[in-house]
Write a structure and sequence with these properties.
single chain, two-stranded antiparallel sheet, alpha/beta, 3-stranded parallel β-sheet
């Protein structure tokens, strides 16, 4: 279900032009920044799916293919799998971040270098 809301924001310079907030796919939306600048740009939204995996070589290919039907970008985080999880995920079209050693759910630290 799509929802649209129109509001008129107040800025330090006074009232700005009405802003359309579109709850759907963003088409026809006017951003506040554009409203203040007098411009109108098409809003493009993307969706990324991140899939954690450990020794999922038997199913990761089909999971990635199904995720790609709904998302613009699929990332598989391979947590030290001993099978071909990373290779199969790449073949199915995912970007893969691979840890050499399994850290499990408790492993802390940011993922750097996407």
């Amino acid at each position: 279900m799509m929802s649209t809301r129109v509001r008129t924001p107040v800025t330090s310079a006074g009232r700005a032009k009405p802003v359309v907030e579109d709850g759907g796919n963003g088409e026809g939306a006017t951003l506040l920044v554009d409203s203040l600048a007098g411009e109108h740009r098409k809003v493009v939204r993307t969706l990324a799916v991140v899939i954690p995996a450990y020794n999922e070589g038997l199913v990761i290919g089909s999971v990635v293919l199904q995720a790609r039907q709904h998302a613009d970008h699929v990332i598989v985080v391979d947590d030290g799998s001993l099978d071909r999880t990373a290779a199969i995920a790449r073949l199915a079209g995912a970007d893969v971040i691979r840890f050499e050693e399994n850290g499990g759910k408790a492993k802390e630290g940011p993922i750097i270098g996407l």
